[in-house]
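Exercise 7. Predict the structure of 2-oxoglutarate oxidoreductase from Candidatus Aquitaenariimonas noxiae.
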Amino acid sequence: MKKVFSRSKLLKDVPTHYCPGCGHGIVHRLIAEVIEELGIREKTIGIAPVGCAVIAYDYWDFDVCEAAHGRTPAVATGIKRVLPDRIVFTYQGDGDLAAIGTSEILHTANRGENISVVFVNNGVYGMTGGQMAPTTLINQRTATTYSGRNPKLDGYPLNITDLLKYLNGAYYLERCSVHSPKEVLKTKQAIKKVLQNQIEGRGFSLVEVLSMCPTYWNMSTQQAVDWIGANVVKQYPLGIIKNGDQA
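Solution. The predicted structure, encoded as tokens:
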């Protein structure tokens, strides 16, 4: 029988703590596959956030360190400057990157730091109970917005990746999703692109990944997948947002 798929050797064989239907596991797998395919395991350093992916180092078989909440880009900047030959990437959720870490990601991008960022956007604070995040959609119900997000009270969803495109130091920005096999394949190519940019010394590159959170969206896995396709992509359109290759 022809073998059509095998798990990356850079994924540890351990039980997952993620909820059923969560997109983090998919993104973890894609990162492991890309690093293995690029042959950069011995040079790669990942920075884990505070959030649902706080123990990402339990799943990847390469060097990973932890950062305080929101300070992930600052830690990555320090490591990359001290060890410029390493491939350094941050793995961040919307609470880590678009809330407490807004300042860090803006200034890191504006400086044009030669790092790669994987930004997983599921629209809620997953680790702490499903509260409203900066990226929560209008009218979306959360643990702190029982009637849905009201822009008059709670403000509007923050399209953080779109904001970054106005910074001269941001070289490459792309938004992808993992709500379908087709989009998963595109996400893998985007992750490879942001790492390849760093290898080539092109500067700050980020891929935003729209991800499911069935538990705190109070949906089945299929409903969560459909929610992204029907609603989330309208607020956060998929595609390349900025490409320094074409500047």
